[in-house]
Amino acid sequence: MPDSRLTFKEMCARFEVTPRTLRYYEYIELLQPEKEGRARFYGPREVARMTLILRGRRFGFSLEEIRQWLLIYRQKGTRPQMEAWLTMADRQLAELARQRAELELAIADLAALRDQAAAALEEPEG
């Protein structure tokens, strides 16, 4: 039976993260690899957690929010974790919508200023 564990280097390559990132996630207890001497090995649980961590980061959650969310599963189980997820997701969706509105306004302002500058360059110098 092949070993389903990944080495430290394989984990970095699979998730396209730096060794420093992987060590930091271990330090803040997001990941808990198996250790054999100085070697670290990541099983299916750690691979799944890393997938959730990176997805959470992509959605804009802090590492502490992700850590707390993952901790709920260990302490209370699936249902409370999913309830917490809904609360977190609703809050983050509202924040992303707010950021999108700010970006749309900034884009419109920048486009207007750009158009003004372009129009000024087209006017004959007087």
TrEMBL record:
Gene Ontology molecular-function annotations: DNA binding; DNA-binding transcription factor activity
CDD domains, per database record: HTH_GnyR
Residues of the HTH merR-type domain: 5-72
InterPro entries membership: DNA-bd_dom_put_sf (IPR009061), MerR-type_HTH_dom (IPR000551), MerR_fam (IPR047057), Tscrpt_reg_MerR_DNA-bd (IPR015358)
Entry-linked Pfam families: MerR (PF00376), MerR-DNA-bind (PF09278)
Residue ranges that the Swiss-Prot or TrEMBL entry lists as coiled coil: 86-123
Protein name: DNA-binding transcriptional MerR regulator
